[in-house]
Amino acid sequence: MRQSSIQVCPVPLEQQPVNEYEELKESWFFRWATLDNRLFVRKITLIWIIGWLISSPIAAASFSPSKSALPFVLFSNLGAGLVLALILLQLFFGWHYVSDRLKKATIFYEESGWYDGQTWPKPPEMLTRDRLIVSYQISPILGRLTRTVGLLALLMAGDSLLWLYL
C-alpha cells in the first residue's frame, strides 16, 4: 500500500496552509467575508454606523451641525468610510495571505522559532488541492472584498469632490 506524501509532511499542523485556511474560515472576524450577501452587507453597514458615531463628534467640533450641516455630514461620512476601509483592508489582507500560501509550490515554516525557517515542496496532490481551494473558495471572497472596497472608494471620492465644491 502506497503511503500518501501528505501524511509525511514535516510542516507543523498549525503552519500548514490548508489548516490556516480552515482557521481563518472559522475565525469570528474573517468569517464575515464568507457570509451570504445580506449578512455581509448588514455587518458592513453596522461597521459604517459605528464609524459614523466615532467620527461625528469630531466633525461636530469642527463644523456645527446646526450651521454647517452638509460639511458635518460629509466629514462624518469620510470618517466612517475610513474606519470601514481599515476593516475591509484587514479582511482582504488576511484572506490574501492565506491565498498566497495555498498557491505556492513550497511551504515556508518554522520548526521551533523565528531563527530556523525551512521550506518544504508540496507534493502534486497537495498543490492541486490547495490551488482548487484558492480557485473555488478564496478567489470569490477576494473578489467580493475588492468590489466592496472599490464601491467604498467611489463613495468617499464623491464625498471628497462634493467637499471641494462647497
TrEMBL record:
Listed transmembrane segments: 44-63, 69-95
Give the record's keywords alphabetically: Membrane, Transmembrane, Transmembrane helix
Transmembrane helix found in the keyword field: yes
Record protein name field: Ycf36 protein
Upper classification of the source organism reads: Bacteria, Bacillati, Cyanobacteriota, Cyanophyceae, Oscillatoriophycideae
Which Pfam families has this protein been placed in? CGLD27-like (PF06799)
